[in-house]
Design goal:
The complex is a heterodimer of chains A (about 140) and B (about 150). Chain A has one domain. Chain A contains six helices and no strands. Chain A is mainly α and about 140 residues long. Chain B is an all-alpha fold and about 150 residues long. Chain B has one domain. In chain B, about 70% of the residues lie in helices and about 0% in strands. Chain B has six helices and no strands. Chain B starts with a helix and ends in a 5-residue tail after the last helix. The chains are: A mainly alpha (about 140), B mainly alpha (about 150). The interface between A and B is large, with 121 and 121 residues. Chain A: It comes from Onishia taeanensis. Chain A: Keywords: Membrane, Transmembrane, Transmembrane helix. Chain A: This is Sulphur transport domain-containing protein. Chain A: InterPro entries: DUF6691. Chain A: Pfam families: DUF6691 (PF20398).
Chain lengths: ~140, ~150
């Protein structure tokens, strides 16, 4: 198979693993996410296990993968190189956290829940895209 | 408080998310950051770099569906077996939340996956600072909404 074909197949598999992981981990349930952020209530540790499992797996996997000269289906690894902190990074993260706490959705779980689409979720997806557009215009 | 079943499901789900990130790096050399992948898909559609983003989205959406089709257990709180939980608020709240999540991840260059999973795994100082920041504002927001205003579930 040509790499033009392999790239979308690789993308699908990555998305599938991600969606399966979110669903199995309970991250497609906003109540679990808000429960994790609710330190003063009946704290739900599930998200900590999801993030922990993901970070440890990725940490080990990246060390192995990034030793290779290049990815399998493209020319080069595309890694962020900046290391400085700035107001855009921290201000953006702060605003994101407020929206995350209000809804219990970050972008992955919100889109992964598309098959259970409700009016509130549709509203959130629409303004999320509008927010991305606005960030590009102003950023 | 510590429910071992949901914690183990969480750990297994996290490992799958990690495998997804490693696979995307190994094959396409990309960070598995959902806000970056999907915003570029919707807004820019870069030539030669759009098809994989579209299939990634299809995979992301089909993950929960395949789990359901296989009769697999989801991990929705208080609803054993359910795979997708209900939204936490009505349309008005979600319109505001969506704008904050979109604009925030847009100018902050990432969300829970790009900064939280991939960035922390690379020990990136920017991602560590971003993750700490959105965790703190998320925790404060839930505290204000649930315990000071008394709204929400």
């Amino acid at each position: 198979m040509k790499t033009a074909m392999l790239k979308p197949v690789a993308g699908y598999l990555a998305g599938l693993l991600f969606g399966l992981g979110l669903a199995l981990g309970g991250m497609t349930d906003p109540a679990r996410v808000i429960g994790f952020l609710d330190l003063a209530g009946g704290w739900d540790p599930t998200l900590m296990f999801v993030l922990g499992g993901a970070v440890v797996t990725t940490f080990i996997g990246y060390r192995w993968v990034l030793r290779r000269p290049a990815p399998l289906f493209t020319g080069a690894f595309q890694l962020p190189t900046r290391r400085d902190l700035d107001t855009k990074l921290l201000g953006g993260a702060a605003l994101f956290g407020i929206g995350w706490g209000l809804s219990g959705y970050c972008p992955g779980p919100a889109f992964a829940s598309l098959s259970g689409l409700s009016l509130p979720l549709a509203a959130m997806l629409a303004t999320m895209v509008a927010g991305w557009w606005l960030a590009r215009r102003l950023g | 408080m510590l429910d071992w079943t949901s914690s183990l499901y969480g750990l297994a789900g996290g490992v799958l998310i990690g495998l997804s990130a490693v696979w995307l790096m190994a094959t396409l050399g990309r960070i598995a950051g959902i806000s970056g992948i999907l915003s570029a898909l919707v807004l820019e559609r870069p030539k030669g770099d759009t098809a994989w983003r579209l299939t990634f989205l299809l995979g992301l959406v089909s993950g929960p569906l395949i789990l359901m089709a296989l009769g697999g257990q989801g991990n929705v709180a208080g609803e054993p077996g359910a795979v997708i939980g209900a939204p936490a608020g009505g349309v008005g709240l979600m319109l505001i939340a969506g704008l904050l999540v979109g604009f925030g991840t847009g100018i902050g260059s990432g969300c829970t996956s790009g900064h939280g999973v991939c960035g922390l795994s690379r020990l990136s100082p920017r991602s560590m600072a971003a993750t700490l920041t959105f965790l703190v504002t998320g925790i404060v927001t839930v505290y204000v909404v649930r315990h000071l205003l008394g709204g929400g579930a």
